[in-house]
Write a structure and sequence with these properties.
This protein is of the alpha/beta class. Helices cover about 35% and strands about 15% of the residues. The chain has two domains: about 250 residues, Type I PLP-dependent aspartate aminotransferase-like (Major domain) (Aspartate Aminotransferase, domain 2), CATH 3.40.640.10; about 120 residues, Aspartate Aminotransferase, domain 1, CATH 3.90.1150.
Length: about 400
């Protein structure tokens, strides 16, 4: 019997295990030196000035919208085709979510529609935009930046699917996701099926010292131990080496050294994993290109900077294909159910028909297995199963 193939799988090496064991034997399980090491190495990997490691991708989103200054009632634009956390982060800060439909060719947020929405609204109606690098396909942040600057918005790039991904700027330069050049902040996730697997964990990157400092404060209860930033009068409250101040209502969103050590080790193999993902996508592309009944969401030749967290195909008989593959031990997933159709968001006033391209995409989308440790034989097995099920 063939071995089951999941849609995603972590790859843990002996080096990863040794890195974690080393921390377990050290003096620090949390708030130790591995956190800073992970942050510095990740910032260097994506080309950003600063990085702040947190407990997961959702807490990264939450802290980022706060650090960017989102106020209660502030409106933020994002895509309905994403994991709910992208939109939920705005609600956590008592903001308001406004969805914009997708480009049906890429399933990324349609920046032309973003512009139309802003042009039809009074100046200052919106605070920011959260573009999502869906499946690892980078949004054109140069175009997004031009729109954001024109209308006074910040940009929070949800790059959870795209470490190592890039888009090509108008000058022909490769711009890595999260490098801080076009976004005010970017977030990444280290969930097991992501490029860098820590079990849980997240990272926020930015080129802004102000945003960086605010993230550090919010990550740890809003507390600072930096005497240069104290605001209380020493004549009113005793101060010494023990002293700290809670200056804002922050959170305990820290990542432990155990997970950071795993992240540092995984980061050393990040490019190898990314290259393998692109090889697998190329194999799939050859199988599925120019077919009427299967449409890959994007092709490598069209998006060379795609990071391929997911490989998404669109099939007309998705339920049948999904069940057929499941019966063969090939486990797929759907990314994503449109956020505006979730019961909670429908209670906020959204309804079916609001974003037709997103809804049409969802009806056909299927994420088939994609992870670096897949063998060519497994890729072939998946491809043939998809072809067979889709033809029937």
């Amino acid at each position: 019997m063939n071995k089951p193939i999941p849609y995603g799988r972590q790859n843990i090496s002996e080096e990863d295990i040794s890195a974690v064991v080393e921390v377990l034997k050290s003096d620090f399980l949390t708030q130790g030196p591995k956190i800073k090491e992970f942050e510095e190495k990740f910032a260097n990997y994506v080309g950003a000035k600063y990085a702040v490691a947190v407990s997961n991708g959702t807490t990264a989103l939450h802290l980022a919208v706060l650090a960017l200054g989102l106020k209660p009632g502030g409106k933020v634009i994002t895509t309905p085709i994403t994991f709910v956390a992208s939109a939920n982060s705005v609600l956590y800060a008592d903001g308001q979510v406004e969805f914009v439909d997708i480009d049906p060719e890429t399933a990324l947020i349609d920046l032309n529609q973003v512009r139309k929405l802003l042009e039809s609204s009074p100046k200052g109606s919106y605070s920011g935009i959260i573009p999502v690098d869906l499946a690892g396909c980078p949004v054109d942040l140069e175009k997004a930046r031009a729109i954001a600057d024109e209308f006074g918005l910040w940009i929070l790039e949800d790059a959870c699917h795209a470490p190592g991904g890039y888009f090509t700027s108008s000058s022909g330069k490769r711009e890595l996701c999260g490098n801080g050049k076009y976004s005010d902040a970017s977030v990444f996730s280290f969930h097991p099926v992501k490029h860098i697997a820590c079990g849980e964990g997240g990272m926020i990157t930015t080129d802004s010292k102000q945003v960086y400092d605010e993230l550090l404060l919010l990550r740890t209860h809003g507390i600072t131990k930096d005497s240069g930033k104290f605001v209380s009068d020493a004549s009113e409250i005793a101060q010494g080496g023990w002293y700290y101040e809670m200056q804002e209502l922050g959170f305990n969103y820290r990542i432990p050294d155990i997970l950071a050590a795993l992240g540092v080790s995984q980061l050393e193999r990040a490019d190898l994993g990314l290259n393998r993902r692109r090889e697998i996508a190329n194999l799939y592309d050859r199988k599925f290109s120019n077919l009427d009944f299967i449409k890959p969401l994007t092709l490598i030749k069209d998006h060379p900077g795609h990071a391929y967290h997911l490989y998404v195909v669109q099939v007309t008989n998705r339920s049948k294909v999904y069940e057929s593959l499941k019966a063969l031990g090939i486990y797929c997933q759907v990314h994503y159910i449109p956020v505006h159709l979730q019961p909670y968001y429908k209670r906020l006033g959204f309804k079916k028909g609001d974003f037709p391209f997103a809804e049409q995409y969802y009806e056909k989308a299927l994420s088939i297995p994609m992870f670096p440790s897949m063998t060519d034989e497994e890729v072939e097995r998946v491809a043939q199963a998809v072809l067979s099920a889709s033809r029937d």
